[in-house]
Amino acid sequence: MRFLVFLLRVFSGAVSLMFFDFLSPPTNDGDLGTLGHYRVISELGRGGMGYVFQALDTKLKRSVALKVMNPKVASSRNNQKRFVREARAMAALHHDNVVTIFEVGKSDNTPFIAMEMLKGQTLEQRNESEQPLNYQQIIDYARQIANGLAFAHEKGIIHRDIKPANIWIEEGTDRIKILDFGLALTSTPLDQLSGKLAVIGTPGYLSPEQARSEPLDDRCDLYSLGAVLYELCTGSIPVLAKSIPGQLVSIIAKRAKPINQLNSEIPKELCDLVHQLLRKEPRSRPKSAVSFCEQLDQVEMACDAKSGIAIAINNLQKGLSDIARKKDPAK
């Protein structure tokens, strides 16, 4: 009966129809529908695996982001396993710099993840809409991302797809949240779902060992972090090709242009550390996210010291110029 009433309201124009056949009819005006005990209010986005909705948990009376697997994709057992793997990986991580998972479940065989509802924007969106970051902001974001990764790595989880679209900047606090552990995996070269070696990730930010389908450890995430930081410093990814195969070859064989050739405002110490993250061999990168943070602290102190000296020299020069003008007004 409720469904018939819903259809009558649709046909009469009382509600607009954005049809998701995996949702039950809505119980409130303006909603898209319901999924289990969640009121599905609006669509936030969609991707290859499914949809993300703004929803209300009717049991706990809180707003959540509801990630729902596309039923067509969910018809594959392997895809369901991948989705559940993401959920379990994320649910195991309770850290300020990782998005929080509230519930993992199924409703009428539709898998879903309920997570904290975030306000703000992705780093990708920020890069597209605002002015470039200064070195202090880049260091702050780098430290927060690395802290989140360090926690995940300590739990034996590698993200494998660190990129600006998977990094959230919280509105009002500038706190970073790492999103989408959909490719997260323990340290193994094997795609456990297909039984085959596989290149998985986003080509512009893949590590060379990912491009070669080699065994992975924590340092593949550090390379991807380096690619993100390189883009923050220069406005472009480290290496770029016209095709995905060409991109994979470039990641393996081509070196990124020096950052200071593209942006002279970035201090040398920070440039050097980012390039260290981008080294082709994992053993040449920082040994861990924790080690990277320690190096970043040293870089920040060196950069701030140089900045302080530069400001002092500039103030001294300005003061001398003012004195000279007072002595000789003609100048």
What does it look like?
Helices cover 42% and strands 17% of the residues. With 331 residues, the chain is an alpha+beta fold. It has two domains: 16-116, Phosphorylase Kinase, domain 1; 120-308, Transferase(Phosphotransferase), domain 1 (Orthogonal Bundle), CATH 1.10.510.10. It has a six-stranded antiparallel sheet. It has a three-stranded antiparallel sheet with strand order 7-8-9. Strands 10-11 form a two-stranded antiparallel ribbon. The chain is globular.
Essential attributes:
globular; six-stranded antiparallel sheet; 11 strands; Phosphorylase Kinase, domain 1; three-stranded antiparallel sheet; alpha+beta; 42% helix; 331 residues
Give the gist of this structure.
The protein is α+β, with helices and mostly antiparallel strands and 331 residues long. It is built from 11 helices and 11 strands.
How many β-strands, per DSSP? Answer: 11
Radius of gyration: 24 Å
Number of helices: 11
Order of helices and strands: HEEEEHHEEEHHEEEEHHHHHH
Q: What's the CATH superfamily of the largest domain, by name?
A: Transferase(Phosphotransferase) domain 1
Strand residue percentage: 15-25%
Strand order in space, largest sheet? 1-2-3-4-6-5
Low-pLDDT stretches: 1-17, 186-198
Fold topology:
Elements: H1 2-11, E1 33-35, E2 38-46, E3 50-57, E4 62-69, H2 71-74, H3 77-91, E5 101-107, E6 110-116, E7 120-122, H4 123-129, H5 135-154, E8 167-170, E9 176-178, E10 190-191, E11 196-197, H6 208-211, H7 219-234, H8 244-253, H9 259-262, H10 268-277, H11 289-327
Antiparallel strand pairs: 1-2, 2-3, 3-4, 4-6, 5-6, 7-8, 8-9, 10-11
